[in-house]
């Protein structure tokens, strides 16, 4: 009864989103007709439909979560396509790769239940990835976090996020606080050396939350906070770009044509959009630099309006709460901590970048999960979703097994 | 596991609150500052959209046309050049040289950006070109013109007149001004910067008019303030400074009433030292110093009470209105209004009504209390003292026979300037003419001889005498 209700409502949601995506792309096609645009009009809603409807047939997954994630990804493709068709296509490909990565991680998490993860291997891989940018990285926006291998640029710290979640969850579930702290310290050190402070902030916050959940030890929390304050002060004193960002945050209007330009234009884009938005393709948000990455949320509000932006925010909150629900239902410490850490990571990242867009906190160059342009970022977000979905599917299997066991016992009696 | 689940729930609550705080902050900052962002000169979208919309008219409070769009879709301003110059800083100009005139700051009405989608749809279906809304401002053209004509032509400064009961601005003019329909090269080259709106953007020390706030602090914090006699022997020796009076006057034993009337620096320096920095700052902040002014109709620079290097010397000079105090003419008009309005400071407003081309109104002016500055009793005492300053004091040239006028002059010494900045703030203490005024003239001389006479003539004009 309950599940059929859920099914019909999720079917309605799916249809609504397909119609939305189709009409949005169709609108852009009318504006600028080409074979490419017309194929996007069919391709993107189709990939959304297939991944939302057929994926759950392969494995048992949380459908609502899957729908939201697919919608956000497809929305990202749409917005990027509207800004620049080439980036839209790239993002569609990233989205496809992301779906495969998600599937992979669902199986990986399931696999880890039976065979304990070769944690040493994961640590080694993450360590190598992390150190890569320091050896042959390129600097963008003050952070040295990018690596180009075989002609493909990527951000290793994004991919290490996923491994970090697994490694930390493993240590904490085994109550190996010292190892957890050691690994966290290593990550923080490397990120600080790369001057990638936005990512460092996310790592730090997530690890602190995971430690809390695993131990509820206020001494660790206290140490964590002292470390955070210390780290921020050091970061502020050491890095000129941090100082600049804080100054811009406090008053971007002092230099609205220079340093404060981005944030000022972001705020203007939001109010220009107003409640209902300027309409898809009618805004002029491309005046913001980094409009496809850091400021994509302002662009969405600009063209779709504040109500729509609010809905997107609620989707992230819903996504987070579904993740929490999955963490609560899981039966092992490892799974619970893993699912929680993953959900918090996405939520924190969302907060940091949207907060930066609306000038609530200083802007740090992190991406909006699932929507911002960028292969590494989308891939890591999808892997993290894979982790949560993996835990969800284990929960379902266990519920199923328990039922069967109960039935078997009933039969015996 | 049970403990873990409990922890997870706690984390879920905290993180949800953090995410929801985005909505709270967003809603707050958009509602308080959204219009500022929108009207910003760096809003490229607005510039682009203006091409498609015919801007609405701007009227004064008596429906005199101040700005309109002609058949060639060009912005035109009042046909009277004097009036154009008197109004330009508040009304704004097409080229947006004035930055935050109504033309820019109220563009969301004038260009119909506030219209809802159904309204836009109806307009689109009718096939008519979109037309923005008309706005009526609280400005009074005849008073503005009079004030403009009284201001010395070769000087820079500002005149603000507002209704102290409602906060409606009657004139808000900056000098020297320029003609928005006849912009000349000399306007651009003028070192006195005619485009700059001095009423809201010029921050400087107000001089002795600040003594009103020092007095308010004394009345609040010194129990026998009204009866106390202070000693003025012509010079107050302090570490690193000596406080003297204008033309080295010696007042001997003097009470606060007399001290305000003759503007005795030595008395007010003593008062400042007695109440102390913390309490004087508190009173100043009750009057809005240190506030982040977020008025709905106007963009105003914040006023500041000096916070650094607070020595005895600095505190004493602050009490007399010197030191690094910073305030705008509009804010000082608000201070006068607060005294006049029994201690209640009204928010300055210029927008009276917004209506569409068919006369349907979508906004009406409502007075709004900005803050309660001081108690009613203290306000009445200060009012009495200010009346004395007009009757038998430095502000006597602001007086009008047969009507009760209260006022205070100020002459602030600015480093590197030949003459003092002349200030006057005051009001008509009469329910029929609830008007407060601030006149500030840069590099002009003493407040009593330069600023007060202008205020006096304006009081006479406004009361019809």
- Going by helix content, strand content and strand pairing, the class of chain A is mainly alpha
- Report the radius of gyration of chain B as a whole number of Å: 25 Å
Task: Count up the helices of chain B.
Answer: 16
Give Rg of chain A in angstroms: 22 Å
- If strands are numbered along the chain, what order do they take across the biggest sheet of chain A? 1-2-3
Number of discrete helical segments of chain A = 16
State the oligomer: heterodimer
Roughly how many Å apart are the termini of chain A?
Answer: 28 Å
Features:
heterodimer; A: 413 residues; mainly alpha; 3 strands; globular; B: 465 residues; alpha+beta; Beta-lactamase; five-stranded antiparallel β-sheet; 16 helices
Describe the structure.
The complex is a heterodimer of chains A (413) and B (465). In chain A, β1 (137-140) and β2 (143-149) form a beta hairpin. Chain A is mainly alpha-helical. Chain A has helices spanning 2-31, 35-53, 55-58, 63-83, 85-114, 119-136, 156-173, 177-193, 197-215, 218-238, 240-250, 261-273, 296-304, 306-329, 333-357, 375-412; strands spanning 137-140, 143-149, 152-154. Chain A has one domain (2-398). Chain B has a domain at 207-350 and 367-462: 3-Layer(aba) Sandwich (Beta-lactamase), CATH 3.40.710. The model of chain B has no long low-confidence stretch (mean pLDDT 91). Helices cover 40% and strands 18% of the residues of chain B. Chain B has a 6-stranded mixed beta sheet with strand order 4-3-2-6-14-15, covered by helices on one side. Chain B has a 5-stranded antiparallel beta sheet with strand order 8-7-19-18-17, with helices on both faces. In chain B, strands 1-5 form a two-stranded parallel ribbon. The longest helix of chain B is centred in the first third of the chain and has 38 residues, at 2-39. With 465 residues, chain B is an alpha+beta fold. The A-B interface holds A 209, 212-214, 216, 253, 256-257, 261, 264-265, 267-272, 274, 276, 278, 283-284, 287, 306, 310, 313, 316-317, 320-321, 324, 327-328, 331, 333, 336-337, 340, 344, 347-348, 350-351, 354-355, 358-360 and B 1, 3-5, 7-9, 11-12, 15-16, 18-23, 25-26, 29-30, 34-35, 37-38, 40, 42-46, 48, 113, 117.
């Amino acid at each position: 009864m309950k599940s059929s209700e859920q099914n019909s409502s999720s079917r309605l949601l799916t249809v609504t989103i397909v119609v939305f995506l189709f009409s949005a792309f169709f609108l852009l096609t009318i504006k600028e007709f080409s074979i490419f645009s017309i194929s996007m009009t069919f391709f993107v809603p189709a990939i959304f439909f297939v991944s939302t409807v057929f994926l759950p047939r392969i494995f048992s997954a949380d459908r609502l979560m899957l729908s939201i994630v697919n919608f956000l990804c497809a929305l990202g493709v749409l917005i990027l396509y509207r800004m620049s068709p080439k980036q839209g296509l790239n993002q569609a490909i990233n989205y496809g790769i992301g779906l495969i990565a998600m599937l992979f991680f669902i199986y990986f998490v399931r696999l880890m239940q039976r065979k304990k993860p070769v944690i040493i291997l994961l640590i080694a891989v993450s360590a190598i990835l992390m150190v890569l940018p320091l050896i042959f990285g390129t600097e963008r926006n003050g952070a040295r976090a990018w690596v180009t291998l075989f002609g493909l640029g990527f951000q290793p710290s994004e991919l290490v996020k996923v491994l970090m979640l697994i490694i930390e969850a493993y240590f904490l579930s085994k109550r190996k606080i010292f190892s957890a702290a050691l690994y966290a310290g290593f990550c923080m050190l490397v990120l600080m050396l790369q001057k990638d402070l936005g990512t460092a902030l996310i790592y730090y916050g997530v690890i602190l939350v995971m430690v809390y959940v695993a131990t509820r030890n206020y001494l660790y929390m206290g140490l964590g906070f002292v470390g955070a304050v210390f780290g921020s002060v050091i970061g502020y004193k050491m890095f000129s770009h941090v100082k600049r960002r804080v100054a811009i945050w406090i008053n971007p209007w002092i230099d609205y044509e220079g340093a404060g330009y981005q944030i000022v234009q972001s705020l203007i884009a939001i109010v220009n959009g107003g409640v209902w938005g300027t309409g898809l393709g009618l805004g002029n948000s491309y005046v913001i630099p980094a409009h496809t990455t850091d400021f994509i949320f302002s662009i969405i509000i600009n063209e779709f309006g504040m109500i729509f932006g609010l809905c997107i925010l609620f989707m992230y909150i819903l996504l987070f709460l579904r993740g929490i629900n999955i963490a609560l239902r899981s039966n092992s410490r490892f799974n619970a901590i893993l699912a929680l850490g993953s959900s918090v990571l996405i939520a924190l990242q969302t907060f940091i970048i949207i907060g930066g867009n609306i000038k609530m906190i200083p802007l740090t160059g992190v991406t909006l999960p699932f929507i911002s342009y960028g292969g590494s970022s989308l891939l890591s977000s999808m892997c993290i979703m894979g982790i949560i979905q993996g835990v969800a599917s284990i929960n379902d299997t266990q519920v199923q097994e328990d039922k069967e066991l109960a039935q078997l016992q009933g039969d015996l009696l | 596991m049970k403990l873990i689940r409990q922890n997870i729930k706690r984390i879920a609550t905290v993180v949800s609150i953090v995410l929801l705080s985005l909505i709270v902050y967003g809603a707050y900052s958009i509602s308080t500052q959204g219009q500022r962002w929108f009207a910003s000169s760096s809003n490229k979208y607005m510039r682009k959209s203006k091409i498609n919309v015919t801007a609405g008219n701007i009227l004064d409070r008596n429906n005199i046309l101040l700005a309109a769009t002609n058949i060639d879709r060009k912005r035109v301003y009042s046909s009277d050049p004097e009036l154009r110059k008197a109004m330009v800083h508040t009304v704004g100009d097409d080229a947006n040289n004035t930055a935050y005139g109504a033309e820019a700051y109220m563009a969301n009405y004038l260009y119909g950006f506030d219209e809802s989608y159904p309204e836009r749809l109806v307009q689109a279906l009718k096939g008519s070109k979109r037309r923005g809304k008309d706005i009526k401002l609280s400005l009074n053209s005849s008073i503005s013109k009079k004030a403009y004509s009284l201001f010395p032509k070769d000087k820079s400064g500002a005149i603000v007149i507002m209704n102290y009961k409602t906060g409606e601005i009657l004139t808000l003019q900056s000098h020297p001004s320029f003609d928005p329909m006849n912009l000349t090269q000399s306007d651009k080259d003028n070192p006195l910067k005619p485009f700059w709106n001095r009423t809201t953007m010029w921050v400087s020390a107000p001089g002795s008019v600040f003594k009103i706030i020092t007095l308010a602090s004394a009345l609040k914090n010194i129990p026998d303030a009204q009866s106390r006699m202070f000693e003025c022997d012509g010079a107050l020796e302090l570490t690193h400074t000596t406080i003297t009076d204008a033309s080295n006057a010696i007042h001997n034993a003097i009470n606060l009433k007399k001290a305000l009337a003759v503007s005795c620096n030595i008395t007010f320096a003593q008062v400042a030292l007695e109440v102390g920095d913390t309490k004087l700052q508190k009173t100043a902040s009750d009057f809005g110093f240190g506030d982040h002014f977020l008025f709905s109709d106007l963009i105003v620079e914040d006023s500041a009470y000096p916070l650094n290097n607070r020595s005895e010397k600095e505190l004493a000079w602050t009490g007399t209105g010197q030191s690094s105090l910073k305030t705008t003419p509009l804010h000082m008009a608000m201070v006068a209004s607060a005294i006049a309005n029994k201690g209640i400071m009204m928010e300055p407003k210029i927008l009276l009504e917004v209506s569409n081309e068919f006369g349907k109104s979508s906004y009406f002016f409502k007075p709004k209390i900005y803050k309660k500055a001081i108690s009613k009793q203290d306000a009445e005492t200060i009012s009495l003292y200010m009346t004395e300053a007009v009757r038998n004091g430095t502000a006597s040239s602001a007086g009008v026979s047969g009507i009760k006028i209260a006022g205070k002059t100020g002459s602030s010494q600015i480093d590197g300037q030949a003459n003092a900045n002349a200030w006057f703030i005051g009001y008509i203490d009469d329910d029929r003419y609830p008007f407060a005024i601030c006149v500030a003239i840069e590099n002009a001389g003493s407040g009593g001889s330069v600023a007060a006479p202008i205020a006096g003539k304006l009081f006479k004009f406004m009361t019809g005498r």
